[in-house]
Amino acid sequence: MSTSPKSKPRQSQPQSPPPPPQSQPRHNGSNPSITAISWTGGKDCNLSLLHAHRDPSLDVRYLVVFRVNEKSFLAHPIPFMEAQAKSLGLELLFVDIPRDTNDYMQAYIDGIVKLKEGHGVELISTGDMDLVGTTERNWMERCCEGAGIRVHLPLWKKNREDVLEELLDEGFRIMFSCVKSPFFDESWIGRMLDRSALEEMRTIAGRKLTEEEKESGVKELDLCGERGEYHTMCVDGPLYRWEVALEREERALEMALESNWEGNIHNAKKIWTICLKENNEEKEGV
């Protein structure tokens, strides 16, 4: 099964690929800031990339993935991100965070410093929309501040419906790659986030929670999944030179979650993720 059902005809891969999407210099003649996009391959970072691309003060050169060593990327498969970067014509960089670190923030700061010194990165753009958990400031803002560079938050505090409508209006093709109970089930994996899905999500968000759900800490569905209710991968969009097409298994990967896991913000009991086939080779421009 392809990751892009109902695919539109894709362009042939150009003999000489066009240059990667980059912003133009500032109108006042100063050089634009060398920019990296904090990347997962999902809807929010893709919209952040589009905003940064259209900002004449920014020179978008890199996609950067912050990854904890030995931790799998089930919701955002790395082969998928590599295929996206190729279609976008941008270099994909990785910042490895030691799994056994006692200071995650310092590990992030150290990684960002390496981006600054090794690649000249002056600014990181992220698709963050809100604070996570009990944090009082945006995580990436604090890390960039510690590393001596700037942060760009084009989606910060935006209305959730407005963000989803913008994604659809701009022509992004977004696929659900991970969903969690109690709002979703396996049938959502591989489904496209289109207007029909958005309408269904509005209905889910508007339903009353059961007493059991309230007692277990479940909150109403955030339409953009800001509490981790779902994750996505982009298969096509305004800046993609060809559609990303990777083969996936028919069945989603299902796992039970421990309610006391700190990343389980809304106390989901089950999670389903996309499962790519082994030895997957993306077909460019076919």
How would you sum up the global shape?
Answer: globular
What profile does the largest beta sheet have? 5 strands, parallel
Average pLDDT, rounded to a whole number, is 87
Number of helices: 7
Could you spell the SSE succession in H and E letters?
Answer: EHEHEHEHEHEHHEEE
Strand order of the largest sheet: 3-2-1-4-5
Helix content: 25-40%
Q: Tell me what portion of residues adopts beta-strand conformation.
A: 15-25%
Please explain how this structure is put together.
The protein has 286 residues and is of the alpha/beta class. It is built from seven helices and nine strands, in the order βαβαβαβαβαβααβββ. The strands form two sheets. A five-stranded parallel β-sheet has the order 3-2-1-4-5, with helices on both faces. A four-stranded antiparallel β-sheet has the order 7-6-9-8, with no helix packed on it. Helix 1 links the parallel strand 1 and strand 2 (58-68). Helix 3 (104-119) crosses helix 4.
